[in-house]
Amino acid sequence: MAANPVREPLGRPWFAYRFRGAYHGVLMAQLLRRLFLALLAVSLAAGPRSARADDSPATIPITDIKPGMKGVAYTIFQGDQVEKVDLEVIGVLHNAVGPQLDVILVRLLGDKVQQTGVVAGMSGSPVYFEGKLAGALALKLGQFTREAIGGVTPIADMYEIEKAPASSGTQSAVKLPPRVDVPQELAARTSAGAGQFLVPIETPLVTSGLYPETLAVFGKDFAAWGMSAMAGGNSPASPEDAKLQPGDMVGIDLVEGDLSISSGCTVTTVVADRILACGHPLFGFGSVQMPLSRAHVVMTLSSAQASTKIMSTGGTIGTLTQDRQTAVMGQLGPGPAMIPLEVTLDTPAEQKKYHFKVVENPQLTPTLVATAAFNGLVGSPAYGEGTTLQMEGEIAVKGHTPVKLEDLFAPTDQNTPVAFYVATTVMSDFSRIYSNPYELPQIDHVDIHVKSLAEKRWATIDNAWVDHSEVRPGESLSVKVLLRPYRGAPFVQEIPMTIPAQATRGSLQLVVSGADFLNRNVQSLAATSQGQLPGLEELIQLTNRERHNDRVYATLLQSTPTMLVEDKELPNVPISAINVLDQRQNSGNARLLLQSTAGEWSVEMHQVIAGQRMLTITVK
Q1: What is the C-alpha separation between 30 and 35, in angstroms, rounded?
Q2: What average pLDDT does this structure show over 375-390?
Q3: Do 391 and 358 meet the contact criterion of CB atoms below 8 Å apart?
Q4: From residue 512, how far is each of 72, 384, 482, 599 by CA, in Å?
Q5: Residue 490 phi/psi, 5° resolution?
Q6: Which residue range forms the structural domain that includes residue 521?
Q7: What angle, 0 to 180 degrees and rounded to 10, lies between the N-to-C axes of helices 536-544 and 418-434?
Q8: For 449-495, what is each residue's pLDDT tens digit?
Q9: 447: number of Cβ within 10 Å
Q10: Helices assigned H by DSSP within 143-264
Q11: Residues ≥6 apart with Cβ < 8 Å to 33
């Protein structure tokens, strides 16, 4: 059977058709090669995605940065999509934030930034010129400028953070100047006018579960940290969270659990398992140990005053290890240990429990503990301002006696929530222990158990007297105290006392008061704990001996010196002992008070006692 003849197309020579397979193969190879080169060129120009996370990106020195140069920054406006923002160089400010610490002044271009300006949360956005990393967007020009003007921290200065020493257990603050002057010749080019300054871009403080009452009370503390608090949220943890690229966002977690508080920055560069971000200090604490999490941008909120990114945070992806002048640095991997905090509120109707974990940091932890405790109390539906709160609890310190948290708190005629007094008492005790000058304590946990009592329980000392004012050593007498309760008729409470046998002869002062007056004025803890104790255990013992609000006290004072040696009180110190102390070269653990406490008596009242009265007793 004859083969089918091959039909040649009109106008085409036979050999073209015969060799069309080889011809098309060569053509396809050329097209693929051109496409590969084009994709490679795009990849090299893309900036943050040009190099693998394990590679150090190519950088451009600040000496090569000239006015008029065009570049790009990478940041997120919504979701996890990193977007390119065009920019141009206005000039370089030498020694702007310190000796040999320069700033590149840039103008951001494009429709989005014309609407938003420089956004809170953009700190750390990587900036590229000629495909090379120049630094991180870190500063902004004022609040009401007509253009989006920013300051870039050079990448060489950010890399200096790698030379910083690792954490030694203590933190020392390094503060970025609050503002950088813009030279007059550049102010005109930025349409800023005279008196304009570059300031650090705000860091969003993302909160979830924070009540408005809590923000009203502690918002000023957040503002003092250079952060703008706003509502945010939590995102489910994902295995992809740790796969960071320049331009992505990370959260620095301060509180986790039933309340979450995190700050957010943009990642500048990722090399192996190390990241650099922010381009300016977060708090300026130096070596730190704070959890890192993946942050997601819900949206960018435009504002004529201060635009910001609304964020949510996901699972823990590492540890922030350095918080320095020109950047923050973190290590991807496991997060650091945090302090467990449990708050329980008991009411006649129900019991509510709240669980938190708080970052370990001497400067932040006391305020964060107070914030979480306050938020747990006011967040309970059973909480009300007309109730009295009875607190019991402890701060468990590894290797030491627990710090007792015991007191009674009643609402007053002021507008301060009674839960605030609970929170600040916990904060005071925690701060005293955590910031002690002896050792860095290891806090195992903090437990706060608060019982809500149905009525206002407080009384004021209206008057006090004794039946006779002349007494002898060893003689017993009764101090009568007229108390006026919040509601109800005044009543008299007696405090039995016995004049000590060793009391000095002459006129002695009898102080009738509540605990607050004595803690502040009679052998206060502050007078005996400023580095004059052998160690942390003695400081804890002194803290546990503080007087309680629910007792009325009668304290007998005599005008003989008292020596405070470590955590011991030595009344009636003879002059010879004082002279020996003065002659010793090392007497730093001793302190001399002009008065001695001859005796102290008290009666439990089951209500908060306020006020004081002074009486005079003559000992014959």
Answers
A1: 9
A2: 80
A3: no
A4: 71, 32, 11, 12
A5: -60, 155
A6: 458-619
A7: 160
A8: 999 987 889 999 999 999 899 999 999 999 999 999 988 899 999 99
A9: 16
A10: 155-159, 184-189, 212-224
A11: none
Count of other CB atoms within 10 angstroms of residue 445 = 14
Within-domain flag for 301: yes
Radius of gyration of the chain (CA): 34
Q: Are residues 187 and 217 in the same domain?
A: yes
Distance of alpha carbon 328 from alpha carbon 277, whole angstroms? 5
Residue where a domain stops, chosen among 303, 333, 363: 333
Enter the pTM of the model: 0.77
Residue 567 in this model has a pLDDT that exceeds 50: no
Ranked by mean pLDDT, which of 1-10, 167-176, 270-279 comes out on top?
Answer: 270-279
Quote helix, strand, coil % in the chain, to nearest 5: 20, 40, 40
What is the pLDDT, as a whole number, of residue 162? 84
| Residue 52 binned pLDDT confidence (cut-offs 50, 70, 90) | very low
Binned at pLDDT 50, 70 and 90, residue 61 comes out as: very high
More confident: 30 or 235: 235
* Comparison of pLDDT for 531 and 243, the residue scoring more: 243
Q: 215 and 68 in one domain?
A: yes
77 near 128, Cβ under 8 Å? no
Tokens describing residue 159: 């890399």
- The Cα-based distances of 188 to 33, 333, 350, 574, 613 in angstroms read 50, 47, 65, 74, 67
CA 246, CA 262: separation in Å to the nearest integer?
A: 20
The answer to whether residues 327 and 348 belong to one domain is no
Q: Which of 595, 407, 432, 409 is nearest to 525 (CA)?
A: 432
Measured CA to CA, the distance from residue 185 to residue 187 in angstroms comes to 6
H or E element that contains 1: none
Which of 453, 485, 500 represents a domain boundary (last residue)? 453
